[in-house]
Amino acid sequence: MKYDIAIAYRCYPWISKTPKYRSTDKLGMIIWWLKSMIQCLWVLNPKFFIIADWIPDEWKDKIIQSLWKCDYEYIYTDHIWNNWTYGKQIEILLNQNDSEIVYFAEDDYLYNVYDNVWRKEGIELLKNKKADFISLFDHPWYYRRYFHKYKKDFVVTKNRIRKTEVNTCCTFMTTKTTLKNTKDAFLKYTKWCCDYPMWLMLTKINAYRFFDVDYRDKLWVPNNKKLKLSQRLLKNFPGESVALWMAWLYWWKHILFWKKYKLYIPVPSVCTHLESEDIAPLIDWDDVYNDIN
Fold it and tell me: Considering the entire predicted model, what is its pTM?
């Protein structure tokens, strides 16, 4: 195929949550984050598909200029929002014939401009079938939550460690073949917009974790009160227990009969989500932000 990687990048004119940088300048956010991504691509030949949802006409030229010399297609959508732009990414990446390696990208991530070997490493893992999906974001929740305490597989490369995890967000890399095989699972996201149970179903890590309850833990209730199973679930996994039940409700056949897919996460992180409370650890992102050209 003509390109090393096909990237479907979706962007919007509004700002969600509380970004660490450019919290009031969405056009600047889109341009700077694209620049940071492209600086990580020097060793590759990418093809961009820019999904511009409700982006003002006057922003178009500035966004295209930030792509530098990369080939691109600019696709305007009329206010179809988060879940359907995700569906648009799936459609575009499955129908393109530019690359077997595909990447889902969003407009609120910052990439480490000092790290330009990450995609090459990731592509090799995908081509060698050591990984099915690769995220570039080492989310801090992997270190905060009890639900993420489990046995992990590791792949050690020259520049980083990659570990298996139960889930990630909607920014990730895979192959067109794997995307085709898992399309039905990902399309569920376009209907009710929840990524956690989607990944839990694919990786099957912790898919039976609702049976894993610590019956010794009674610190949060009076000593004379015996905890119910539901109470222990909500105590140990307050948000994750909901994702577990959603995964079984919508995908019980997939959990029982589909293959188990491997999702690898890099340490240190290659990019970070810009939500101020979810910044990836180990990297000085202030330095990265200040050095974007």
Answer: 0.91
